[in-house]
Amino acid sequence: MDSNRLRSTLARPIALFASWLIGASAYAGDVERGRYLVEALTACDNCHTPRGVSGYDLANRFSGGAQTFSDKTYIVRGSNISPDRETGVGGWTDEELRAAIVDGVSREGRLAPVMPSDSYKPLTASDLDAIIAFLRSARPIRAPLQTPQRRNGEWAPHPMPGAATAFDDASLADKNTRGLYVASLARCMSCHAEEIDGAPDYRDRLGSGGKIFRNAAGVVVASNITSHAVKGVGAWSDDELKRAITEGVSRDGAPLRPPMSTLSKAHFSKLSRDDLDALIAWIRTIPPKE
Ligand code: HEC
Ligand code: HEC
After folding, report:
1. Ligand 1 atom showing the smallest separation from residue 120 Cα
2. Which of 47, 115, 181 should be mutated for ligand 1, with most atoms under 8 A from CB?
3. pTM given for the model
4. Fold of 169-283
5. Higher pLDDT, 19 or 190
6. Domain coordinates of the chain in residue numbers?
């Protein structure tokens, strides 16, 4: 066993022991597991934390997002989800938080679909509790949202096929199931599936890419990551895929552009080795598409 392997094998029991020693039991869930899920996969900061010059402004973590999202049926901003009792979610019960995270329903009713609850549907009960524990461990920040929230649509749910309900812990022992879990939480397919009428077509276009982004890097189109040998990533090695996902570097060594590069650096670079291996195994099961 090499030393890296040994270190990662020992890391979790040591972390668990350490959290037991310092009494992390103040929360129902596992705070460090919650941190991992949020930072490597679910990227809650992306919409709920303001940005400073060099990335997320973590001193004001979860106090509300910088971007305003608007569509025909809503104008919303990522809410203050810090534990402040008045302007954040400090006064919410675990049950209310669970409903917001996986069902997209807040105290005031249906949340706009920008809040990606559909992708969080497969969260296991313990992982959902871990995320809630991590939110509760953050600093309460008093920050009322400036933009009035307006939402008035009927939104159809779009969970990933096979990931529409909570997984149980035991099912994650299966590599492909774990890969699907990771892909859903990290919302890979919300960009890498072509959209039909504004919604990703998971049935026929899963992995085919095609979603268009206009940003400082120009017009960027989400790539085809199906196993097609020419149009997709079927001919890529595992290491090439891992580098694209965790470092934002394409097969030919050129840097990928935002939003992929931003997500790689801020989030996917933190994926555990097991989750990354499972994700790659799952991506390889996506049938080839042109
Ligand atoms: C892609 C952007 C995005 C991501 C990622 C995201 N959210 Fe949200 N979230 C929103 C938006 C926008 C709203 C407000 C929607 C509305 O008002 O209808 C919201 C609302 C919420 C609410 C309801 C708060 C309230 O006061 O009503 C909670 C709780 C919440 N999000 C938690 C989370 C957690 C936890 C994560 C990560 C696991 C997360 N969100 C990831 C965009 C996002
Ligand atoms: C917010 C949208 C978005 C999300 C979420 C996202 N991607 Fe991407 N991805 C893109 C875009 C856009 C590109 C193209 C970047 C470019 O051309 O510079 C890309 C490129 C890639 C590439 C490089 C393919 C190539 O041909 O160069 C891979 C591999 C990839 N993404 C995998 C993933 C995986 C796996 C996930 C989930 C862990 C993911 N992406 C999440 C938007 C996204």
Report:
1. 38
2. 115
3. 0.92
4. Cytochrome Bc1 Complex; Chain D, domain 2 (1.10.760)
5. 190
6. 26-151, 169-283
